[in-house]
Amino acid sequence: MRNKEDKQDTHTSDEENQKISQKIGRFFHTETQKEKVLRYEDFDGAGDLYYAGVSAVYKVAQRALWLLFILFMLLSIVFNHSQITYDNFYYLIKDFSGAADYDGSYYETLSYESDHRQNFTLYRGGLASVSPSKISVFTATGRRTLNATTSFSSPFMESSGKYILVYDTSGTTFSIYNSFARVFTKTVEYPVMNASLGEDGSFAIVTRTAAKQSVIQVYNKNFKMKKMLELETGYYAFDIVLNTENNTLSVLSYDAGNGTGRTTLSLRDLDTLEEIEAVRFDGEFPIACGTLDNQSVVLLTDRYIRIFDRTLSEKESSGDYSVGNITGYSLTSEGVAVSATLSSQTMIYAFDKDGNRLYNDTVDFNVSDVGVYGSYIFLQTENGVKRLNSNAKKEEDRIQSLASGTGKMLIYNQKTVLVCGESKAEYLIFQD
What is the pTM assigned to this prediction? Predict the structure, then answer.
């Protein structure tokens, strides 16, 4: 009797499983959905049978996509549950407002509190400024999304598409901000001398210890320090560039060398900080290093611009501008440029984002700063900004000029420049 009941229970369970399987099959079967469409809609004619079939296919596809979405969300929660916190969710929702204006229109000027010690950077299509007492972030439409007090002595800032990193070269604190709030801060034992931000939110700073003149700390995107590199005694780190796309860290340093001074550019693995390649130049002083849009590595010294491939094999170099006095330089993913005075003229050396030579000549006016965007070279003078078109066929089309006040020049795009003064930033818009 017992065995008979068990058989009946098993048979009932099999039938229920079979019914469930049939229902799931009908739920994702196009013919079943087609029949429902024909049953509940007023279809007439063979043509409508075709459209009923199309409707059924889209209905099944919609259900499949919803199922995949639910599965994706469940897996995301399982594998990233430690990152799902109130603070992170709050930052995500609030940060939408700052990103929404990324490609919007912009004002002719942006006003902020006056301070001659301010430092500026472009951030998410807008502007960020920091002074010893305040940090501000403006969107491209002129809306201030962050207006916070700070306590820095000599603040500098770096930016990426995700964050702003502010560090104090006369203090020991650095902080990470997004478009509306501070999200991380830390105080180290010695001053922070340099920093670099990755596009994924990871970053690195340069500080020192009692025994070493330069120590590099690398942090992951969750603000946890994952590696530390101590440079050899006698080596001073002048610049670092964290490249998450190539998973490398470029380190520009200086030491006594053979007595005339030596510049070293080292390319290191971002996970292990082991050296991959290095190049050294005696008798030169380091200024900056960086990465172009095509991932070429750039070294800027007091004598030359050098462009390398990913293995630090040299591809291009400028002329020797040490015969003049450097008045300005710029190194971004859009290109690299240097201006240097020579007698009554100014030497201009410029390369574009692919490492191609844009300009290698002189201009007959003084230049205080220089930058590159596309095929254009921007030259800041005492009266404003001049835009030099390296592709112009006619002399009259070669240079355009716009008047402005004095301040830090930031290149927004190939036709727009910001000049950031003590109390306001001016947008200068050149004609095509």
Answer: 0.76
